Amino acid sequence: MKMTFRWYGLNDSIPLSYIRQIPGMTGVVTAVYDVPPGKEWSRASIAELKSACDKAGLSMEVIESVPVHEDIKLGRGNRDEYIEAYKTNIRRLSEAGVKVICYNFMPVFDWVRTVLDKRNDDGSYSLAYREEDIKKLDPNHLSLPGWDESYSSEELGALLDAYKSVDRNKLFENYVYFLERIIPVCEECGVKMAVHPDDPPWDLFGLPRIVSCEEDLDKLFAAVPSVANGLTLCTGSLGAGRPDLVRLAEKYASQGRIHFAHLRNIGFSGQRDFAETAHLSACGSLDMYAIVKALVKGGFDGYVRPDHGRNIWGESGKPGYGLYDRALGAAYLNGLFEAAEKEKNSK
């Protein structure tokens, strides 16, 4: 297992020197953030990130993410142009030593929360989702925390209209079309694609979701069997659908499909209501130790990062991506992996 930390590039408020001090930290997960989806990343931009990581003594072997252009998801006539750019990015990242690309195939919104600053009983703040809040929204005039500046109302309206003709079957067909063209490049370059599950794992605002559950994943891996077509096991996103995460972790790890893991805990307050909690099992609804044991039992040896943390100790900034709680999460997860691996090796 290789412990990593999400880092938003040279403009991140958290310096690499701080990340390097977290015990057991081997690398960062980053991306080129100033290039729009569908465009090529320059070798210079990639090299600048890698140079900064190298100087800090951290690897840059995982990229999160290379966004998939909406026209690819929609299956529009110009999708091949964007797919060619995606192939170029895979090759250039491979040249820089990248081994895994985390990405998603969610229409329009690649995450949705209704609250970014839920105050918890201990005084910390976290991201939360309430189904009641979603039901109150007008799909024709959406206002979502974290997304209000991502699209103009006209752009969002046009996208939502475009997806009215795309159902789950059509979206999956477009997804396979995309993978069948990029996976050979991945195999050639030694790069593995790790799809992030839908967040949350159910349809929203009439938009289909197709990477939400075990059935979806089995269908995906059957359609494109190459092991370069793999999974980012996000316990928070996949777990929001209440599957048997322990069984799925072992199942897909034993298949060699889990190339990256986002490990975080969530606490349920309703069937589709949850808040993100501290990583400790006792703090939420997920048994993090059982999940880690299942990964180890299945032979997982890929990349891990502590996923969204709370804002604690007066820290402000990007919701879910403060330093302190994610550092605590990394330390906790390192302990779980050490215990699970020693237990396995002692048998």
Structural account:
39% of the residues lie in helices and 17% in strands. The strands form two sheets. An eight-stranded parallel beta barrel has the order 1-2-3-4-7-8-9-12, surrounded by four helices. Strands 5-6-11-10 form a four-stranded antiparallel sheet. The chain has one domain: TIM Barrel (Alpha-Beta Barrel). Helix 4 (79-95) runs parallel beside helix 7. 43% of the residues are buried. The protein is an alpha/beta fold and 347 residues long. The two termini are 19 Å apart. It contains twelve helices and twelve strands.
Residues in helix, %: 25-40%
Percent of residues in beta strands: 15-25%
Total number of helices: 12
Shape type: globular
The CATH topology, please? TIM Barrel
Ends apart, CA distance between termini:
19 Å
Query: Strands of the biggest beta sheet: in what spatial order?
Result: 1-2-3-4-7-8-9-12
Instruction: State the major sheet.
Output: 8 strands, parallel, barrel
Radius of gyration: 19 Å
Give the count of structural domains. Answer: 1
How would you classify the helix and strand content by structural class?
alpha/beta
Low-confidence stretches: none
Task: State the fourth-level CATH superfamily.
Answer: Divalent-metal-dependent TIM barrel enzymes
* Averaged pLDDT: 96
CATH architectural arrangement: Alpha-Beta Barrel
Question: What sequence of helices (H) and strands (E) makes up the elements?
Answer: EHEHEHHEEEHHHEHEHHEEEHEH
CATH class: Alpha Beta
Number of strands: 12
